[in-house]
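Entry 14: structure prediction run for Thiolase. Input pasted below.
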Amino acid sequence: MSQHYLRGKTAIVGMATAGIGEAPGFSAMELLGQAAVGAVADAGVKLQDIDGVFAATSSHAFPTMSVVEYLGLKPKFFDGTNVGGSSFEMHLLQATLALEAGLCDVALVCYGSNQRTAGGRLVSMSEPQWHETPYKPRHPITAYSLAASRHMAQFGTTREQLADVALAARGWANLNPEAFARGPLTKEQILSARMISDPLTAADCCLVTDGAAAVILVRSDRARDLPGKPVYFLGAAGANYHRSIVAMPDLTTTAAAESGPRAMQMAGINQSDIDLAMLYDAFTINTILFLEDLGFCPKGEGGNFVEGGRIAPGGELAVNTNGGGLSCVHPGMYGLFLITEAVAQIRGDVGERQLTDCNLALCHGNGGTLSSQCTAILGSAATL
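Run finished. Output tokens:
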């Protein structure tokens, strides 16, 4: 297979998170600023070196304008593409394109939210209100419960299998000192938790937290001269078929079935090469859908795939090793935290939850209500 010309051309050289869980007294932009400054220090560059800015937020209509003003930057290139929680996987591709074209030299991808301490609730503005408003749904969970119900009806997926996803996430979170939700959790507790939108209980739903994250990218030739271990961009792709859940062509098949294969083709890899899968687990059904659509198992077999701790610590496939959106962090948009965990795993910097051999990671972001799907592949120097 011939390699795509973008494969390995850029690398993440700095990464930081801030305010994970609860950060009372800080605004969304202040948290974003903390993560950006931390990523700059980690990269061994200066804040004023940043000349490319990529941002999406749930609290600023003009995210890049707000970021450059707050940080005092004067970028040559900027992009505020917002396709929900998957925006940041797409930003990796956009930053790589800009860097490779010489339009910027140091790119910042960033996000921040104080959703929890600002009193945010589990709501979504991603649905065109004229479609669903008369029926009084509670989005986004109503949409995801539709997908879960359909998957159960069509393939025999069970609530116990959904619970296996939440159990695995908590198992990883219990190895992560930064995770917001830690401690014992049983399948019985998940199944008996308060029903929010049948068949999804409170334990099937992502957290509502504060949090910020940032990464710094440069061209690969420069990455070798910086102090940290570079993590290379190998491929990325996005796909989007709808915005409203009522327009989704098939409730059991997401656009990840398109974005995943294209990203893997760009990276020149397949599923068996992947050491870590970071999947946007806003709800337990997401993990099952994405394991299927990304080709880790056939369509309809995701429920069987996650049984018996297969994606938990010590299982066959490492999935969401930070604890995911279900047990680690979910501040409105989660996609950048998929990337920071992948970077930390490839670097070998995550302590007790460190995978024995992690050279290749897949990060899959989800936006809206199973709407935009973006997949990115990251690798160590050994993958080049």
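Notes: The radius of gyration is 19 Å. Will compare against the previous run tomorrow.
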